[in-house]
Design a protein that fits this description.
This protein has 217 residues and is α/β, with parallel strands linked by helices. The chain is built from six helices and nine strands, in the order ααββαβαβαββαβββ. Strands 5-4-3-6-7-8-9 form a seven-stranded mixed beta sheet, with helices on one face. Helix 1 crosses helix 3. It is globular.
Length: 217
């Protein structure tokens, strides 16, 4: 089976059944070469419905999880996006094709270099990677129209929600295994946010975040 057939099967057999039906998102998943962001040893598994290992014990999220998160953010071409947890750079590449600019924060230098190299090789010029503690967000360049946590946290700290524009969205996987949920926060006012639980999943912890909830509506 060739690569394009495997990519097609990933979209049709994994991603569509997970309620990812936005034509723009599906087209983007066909366009961005996921295999170019996967470590060489795992390239044959690039389109498999599973997390894939990255250096230093980290991993790429499963394709259907990344696709659903991307769809639910409903990005616009004018959006400024902050990603926390660059990983291999694949999610940043997807975000960059739908937004005006993407800043991806990665606390681990090895992964920051990997993600930056992958994005450069893929000619994704509107996404940049910075080696920094993403748990703090990026207040010096806030507000952002969207923030994506590419991993799980016990809860989302208020200071990240405060870095959203009014109407801005934050996507995170929240909770403690074996029960976690993908949750979308929307900033409705200066001190008002709504939230919606979208689907159940499990993801590795992001570095630097507290294990105890620090923000309650």
């Amino acid at each position: 089976m060739n690569v394009e057939q495997m990519r097609f099967n990933m979209i049709e057999q994994q991603i569509r059944p997970w309620d990812v039906l936005d034509p723009q998102v599906l087209a983007l998943l066909a366009q961005v070469r996921r295999e170019d962001f996967v470590p060489e040893a795992c390239r044959t598994l690039a389109f498999v419905d599973m997390e894939l290992p990255l250096p230093e014990g980290q991993c790429m999220l499963a394709p259907k999880v990344e696709a659903r998160m991307l769809q639910e953010l409903q990005l616009r071409p004018s959006d400024s996006v902050l990603e926390i947890g660059a990983g291999s750079g694949y999610m940043a590449a997807l975000l960059a094709h739908k937004a005006l600019r993407v800043i991806s924060l990665e606390i681990r230098p090895v992964l920051a270099r990997l993600a930056a190299a992958n994005l450069e090789r893929a000619a994704v010029g509107t996404a940049g990677v910075r080696c920094a503690d993403g748990a703090a967000g990026l207040p010096t360049e806030a507000p952002f129209d969207a923030i994506v946590l590419s991993g799980s946290v016990a809860d989302v700290p208020r200071h990240l929600l405060e870095q959203l524009t009014i109407g801005g969205r934050l996507m995170a996987i929240v909770g403690t295994g074996p029960v976690m949920r993908a949750r979308l926060y929307t900033r409705a006012g200066e001190a008002e946010w709504s939230q919606a639980d979208l689907f159940d999943t499990v993801a590795p912890r992001l570095d630097g975040f507290a294990e105890h909830p620090r923000f309650v509506f």
